[in-house]
Amino acid sequence: MPTISNDELAFLNTLERATGAKANDVLATDDCVTFIVQQGDLGKAIGKQGANLEHLRRAFGKNVELVEDSETLRGFLANVFRGVEFLSVEEKKDKAGGRNVVFLKVSAKHKGKAIGRGGEKINRARALVKRKFGYDDLKIS
């Protein structure tokens, strides 16, 4: 698990106390808190009819996203981009900069959903993929 701040540690503790679900990681931004919950704990974290999720949103005063963890890159991306159809997932080393990049090809009708308003979804996904798998970038085409 990457180094987490005191604020992020507090978010993790609040999630566990409020829902009983365990999170492996958390990414906090100005407008959203994204939890990577352990496999099998997503339903517990959401709660009946979204009650736990709504409680967390009120407690943090910002949007809360829940992503179920996965050991594989493809599985993790499928959980991050729930509802987005992938055509391919490729891992490549950038020849110019030597950076490890993931190329995610999505269907044209799902491209906007994968990127998100103002790029918020793709930016969050980039940060999560970097923290969990160590990739330098994530590109969508």
Can you give a write-up of this model?
The mean pLDDT is 91. It contains 6 helices and 6 strands. 40% of the residues lie in helices and 26% in strands. It starts with 5 loop residues before the first helix and ends with a strand. It has 141 residues and is α/β, with parallel strands linked by helices. The strands form 2 sheets. The chain has a 3-stranded mixed β-sheet, with helices on both faces. A 3-stranded mixed β-sheet has the order 4-5-6. The longest helix has 14 residues. It folds into 2 domains: 63 residues, K homology (KH) domain (GMP Synthetase, Chain A, domain 3), CATH 3.30.300; 59 residues, GMP Synthetase, Chain A, domain 3 (2-Layer Sandwich), CATH 3.30.300.20.
